Amino acid sequence: MSILTDISENLQRGKAKIVKELVQQAIDQGIPVREILEDGLLAGMSVIGEKFKNNEVFVPEVLVAARAMNMGASLLKPLMAEAGVQASGKVCIGTVKGDLHDIGKNLVKMMMEGKGLEVVDLGTDVPPEKYIETAKEQGCQVICCSALLTTTMGVMEEVVKQAETAGIRDHVKIMVGGAPVTDTFCKQIGADCYTPDAATAADAAVALCKGA
Ligand code: B12
Question: 20 to 30 A Cα–Cα from 26, which one of 64, 94, 149, 190?
Fold first, then answer.
């Protein structure tokens, strides 16, 4: 088995320490950073993403796989700039003001990172102006809002309105999600995209960053 397949398989099993060791070995063997990332880490994360979408694995498995992904990626990050590996896009994500639920938001973040996106994590209880400020200052192509409470979903509409007022609405897309959020709600508030889970959210964000 090649070391890259080994990385992918151990990542899928959530073996973070082994993944980190294997990534270091791959670096030491002179395997290009892009190959380690794409054929090792991202390949494994993509299998997990598909399985999650099909209900073959669940939240705990995704969390441990994502942790392994992050451990491996932490070794690659400093080498990526040198190797010229470009992130496939930049997004910011946060749970809206008044809402402290972050398990789903963290999963979405991890899956997005697994797809090669650069993700600015704003945390929880994020006021609308913070999303706008971050998108403007850091050049995010997509703003992602998560809400788990029916009482906080409305904040997402305010994010859309403030993006319009700030004049960034034509080039920054807005994605919404969280258990009470629906496609109908997304359309109603004038956001661009709703998806029901982390794997589809990551695919959609990549597509939005590519301008699809
Ligand atoms: C865990 C939990 C908590 C934890 C949160 C811990 C944490 N760090 O997140 C604690 C105990 C703190 C908590 C507190 C409260 N909670 Co609570 N909580 C839950 C619970 C059990 C699970 C939520 C969860 O993590 N699900 C798992 C994740 C993976 O799913 P998810 O968040 O939906 O995310 C997925 C998708 O929605 C999507 N997604 C998520 N975000 C985004 C974003 C984008 C852009 C996209 C595209 C997709 C996307 O991808 C994710 C992965 O597939 C739910 C019940 C439930 N079954 O949902 C209640 C629930 C959400 N809580 C509820 C309530 C009422 C509260 C409290 C008000 C309780 C209280 N009286 O204090 C407080 C509110 C605190 C606050 N201000 O936020 C209610 C909400 C009712 C409602 N309709 O508004 C629920 C539904 C329970 C219930 N049946 O009453 N809660």
Answer: 64
